[in-house]
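INTERNAL AUDIT FORM
Audit reference: QA-55
Scope: verify that the stored structure record matches its stored sequence.
Auditor: D.O.
Record contents follow.
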Amino acid sequence: MANLFGRWRLSLFEKVILANSILLIGEALVGLWVTSHTLEAQHYLIDTSFLILAALLGLFINVLLLRASFRPLFTLLSTIRTVSAGKTSERARITRSDAEISELAQAFNGMLDRLETIRREQTRLILQAQEEERRRLALELHDESSQNLTALLVHIEILSQNLQSLPETAVTNDARKQLAGGLDYLRGLTQDTLESIRTLAQQLRPSVLDDLGLYAAFRWLAEDGRQRLQLPLELRIEGVEDRTRGREGPALYETALFRIAQESLTNIARHANACHVAMTLKQQQDYIYLRICDDGCGYDAAEHQAGTGIVGMRERANALGGTMKIFSQPGKGTTVEAILPLPVEHADEEVYA
């Protein structure tokens, strides 16, 4: 019978019901045979009906009892499927009616919690390494490439002065004008390249974030959005202070908030065609709240797959125990909301301040 059940691929509930059904039907048939051979003919129909009803009633009671007994197991199976579909925040419900299933659910939840902790820690380390690499590249661009281009500008200026000091007989007028024009073009190209490298270095890792903290960094980001991205941006900052500077934890929080805001403004400039953008950064007792709202074209989230930028924003928030949500409708703009819990040390300072 076990091989038969295995071939049919029945669930545990279906196997139990099928086995009970076969058993009860067998008992009914045996009772029918017995009564047909031992009772009088006029009692045959009554006794047979009674046995059939008894068998059906027993089957119904078995179904009810087994369904109630296996309901926690079905709930746990549903949770496992939900987690497998990608909703890793889902947890199994703990029931006291069945000790074994309750223990299984607790073990499953504990495994998910440990995996989530490991995933967050790995994401945090990856993001931290990414920021360190950005900082290194920004420093190299500033210290190496910028200095080389500045030296090139100085050399161009020296060549230009030497050209002007040459006697008129040394170079023809046409050649002099051609050389002067080439030096001017080279000077302008070098200046543009130097400015582009400085802008790229600032985008990779703004020094204001490391030197002056979150408040100043957001003011710089808003000004950069107005000038470079041409966004009609309004900035509101409430209760944000830089008392957490100098610690590794808070630096990660500041970087996450800055990168989420930076990516959001870039997406608005590329896709939204917005006439007004409002960015709010608010610090409460135990969390920091970031909200970026625009009145652009919006989009249907169900029809658009999240890109790497949005995925990175969510990963930054999740790695620090926070959340990042996007609300958007076609023609009604887009709102990005991120909530990060404050570090434990900073929260304690807020309580006892």
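Auditor finding: record pair retrieved intact. Confidence is low (pLDDT under 50) at residues 1-6, 243-249, 346-353.
Action required: none
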